[in-house]
Amino acid sequence: MSRRIKKSFKEEQKNAITLLAFIVLAAMLILAVIGFLGYLNSKGDGLEGKIVYTEGGDWSGSEIWILDIGTGARKQLTFSGLNGAPLWSPDGSKILYSHFVTPSGPQEIHVMNEDGSKDRLVTQENRATVPASWFDDGSILVGYWEGCGIKIRRVSVEGGELEKPFLDPAIAGQGQTWSIDISRKHVPEVGERLIVFDAMQECTGYTNYFDLYVAKLDGSFLSVFFEDADDNITDGLARWSPDSSRIAWTRNNEIFYSRVDSSGQAEKLIQLTHDGKPKVSGPWSPDGRWILIYRREGKSNLFDLFAVNIETKEIKNLTNTSDKDEASSDWREY
């Protein structure tokens, strides 16, 4: 009888241990599933990667910062002068940007590592110079003031010497451009990589309006991407999507995008924003689901960085500051 009781007790003890182990394993599995679903949810909206941008915006100084969208961590990369228009290199290891020593001084191009180290001068033109876009070989397109407005030249980042004019906006508009972007892949409907740029309708002052144009990678003119019959509308600051099938741009104070057809023109305009607030279009997210913009916000009327979902038109404030302007951004994967 005593042996039977001891045997029964040992079996119950063994069953209890087995049950406890099962409960622990089940709990661990549940926690793992919850964590994994949370991870998928955090990644599912496409809002990840790093953004390089300008913070400041007044004549006392503007600096280059990096924002990690996933963690919210920020890092300041420059600490003097007026800095703007930062652009990631194709491999994400370097950042190109423009730099004023003083508001009245020349604007030159600098390049630095992504952590802010090894900053060096690229151009020495002693005039207004702005970075436009990178080629895969590490050379860059640079806009510089000459005559009526900004012209485009290709520049070696290592040598810094301006080559012959790469693209003269006068072939399309009247000689002044503020933005140019190179598609990273072949445009699906065209079968080759293209350049999109804006050009002034007339070159008689800052109050004139821009249209959008497309050129081939050798700098030869291809077509008008979008030209509005209304001379009082500006279309500019265009950026290619990661798959090079679409272009997003600023149309007056709203953000639009369109697929590119076989002739290099806009297929159909789709309006993303409708609030009338001053805003500027920026880069696409790496997965092509969001477009980064900077928009005036709040009582301070300063620019914050926002992401706009092209499917749902949801808008998320990424910086949400009330005392600083954030602008001139570029987006890359981790």
CATH class of the largest domain reads Mainly Beta
On the 0 to 100 scale, the average pLDDT is 80
Report the radius of gyration as a whole number of Å: 26 Å
Largest sheet entry: 4 strands, antiparallel
Number of strands: 24
Strand order of the largest sheet: 3-2-1-24
Write down the overall geometry: globular
The domain count comes to: 2
* Category from helices, strands and their pairing: mainly beta
Order of helices and strands: HEEEEEEEEEEEEEEEEEEEEEEEE
- Give the terminus-to-terminus CA distance: 69 Å
Which CATH architecture of the largest domain would you pick?
6 Propeller
- The CATH fourth-level homologous superfamily of the largest domain: TolB, C-terminal domain
Share of helical residues: 10-25%
Tally of DSSP helical segments? 1
CATH topology of the largest domain: Neuraminidase
In the predicted model, the low-confidence regions spanning at least 5 consecutive residues are 31-43
What does this protein structure show overall?
There is one protein chain. By secondary structure, the chain is mainly β. Helix content is 13%, strand content 43%. The protein is built from one helix and 24 strands. The strands form six sheets. The chain has a four-stranded antiparallel β-sheet, with no helix packed on it.
How do you describe this structure in short?
With about 325 residues, the protein is mainly beta. It has 1 helix and 24 strands.
